[in-house]
C-alpha cells in the first residue's frame, strides 16, 4: 500500500459531498483506524489517514449529508 496512487478528490466527492465534509470524514475514519490499531495492539508503518482515504476511494465508507430540501 506504500505505492498507493493518490485518488482525485473529485472522484471521491460523488458530485454531492463538499470538500469540507470529505476532509472531516477522512479525519474521523483515520481516528477510528488508529484507535482500532491501538486496541488490537497492531504496529504498522501504514498511515491511518492514507488507509482512510483508500476506504473512501473504494467506497467502503461514504459521507451522509442531510438533504437541504428537508
What report would you give on this structure?
With 70 residues, this protein is mainly α. The chain has a domain at 17-57. The protein is 53% helix and 0% strand. It has helices at residues 9-13, 19-40, 48-57. The protein is elongated. The model has no long low-confidence stretch (mean pLDDT 82).
| Uncertain stretches of 5 or more adjacent residues | none
Query: Kindly state the mean pLDDT as a whole number?
Result: 82
What's the total count of β strands? 0
Please summarize the sheet with the most strands. none
Principal-axes shape call? elongated
Q: What percent strand?
A: under 5%
Number of helices: 3
Please give the oligomerization state of what you see.
single chain
Q: What's the alpha carbon Rg, rounded to whole Å?
A: 13 Å
Through-space gap between termini: 41 Å
Which H/E pattern describes the elements?
HHH
The secondary structure category is mainly alpha
Considering DSSP H and I runs of 4 or more, what fraction of the residues is helical? 40-55%
